[in-house]
Every structure is written in structure tokens, then in C-alpha cells.
Design brief:
Blueprint (H helix, E strand, L loop, with lengths): L1 E3 L7 H18 L6 E6 L21 E7 L1
Parallel strand pairs: 1-3
Antiparallel strand pairs: 2-3
Length: 70
């Protein structure tokens, strides 16, 4: 499952990098007009399962993407 998130959720520096990557990807494809590029949001460094108080484990964070129109 993939969750689409807001570009604001990744922070200003990472958002700038993602937007620049989306623009570069679009330029390489040479497609005219406006289209959407989905960029994967990197997982947090602690993306591991954690034990719950009763012994069960919480699931690992799911993949997130940002859809950028360029």
C-alpha cells in the first residue's frame, strides 16, 4: 500500500530536492504539457518494527509518495 502525502511533510530541504528531481525527470522524458510525477518519500531512519507492551510488534512504516505536477 502506498500513501500519498503532502510535500510539506518532508521538510523544506528535502521538498526542494524532490521538486528538482521531478523537474529533471520530466526534462529527460521530453513530454510536452503538464503532468504528474510521483516521488518516493524516504523512510525514517528508525523504520523497524517496535514491540508493543503486550509483546506484539507494531508494523513498519508504509511507503509514502508525493505527487508533483510539473
Amino acid at each position: 500500500m502506498t500513501i500519498t502525502t503532502s510535500i510539506n511533510a518532508v521538510g523544506p530541504v528535502k521538498a526542494t530536492e524532490m521538486i528538482q528531481s521531478a523537474r529533471a525527470e520530466t526534462a529527460i522524458e521530453h513530454r510536452a504539457g503538464l503532468h504528474t510525477v510521483s516521488m518516493t518519500v524516504p523512510a525514517p531512519d528508525d523504520a523497524t518494527s517496535r514491540p508493543h507492551a503486550d509483546g506484539r510488534e507494531f508494523p513498519v512504516s508504509q511507503a509514502r509518495v508525493v505527487d508533483i505536477s510539473v
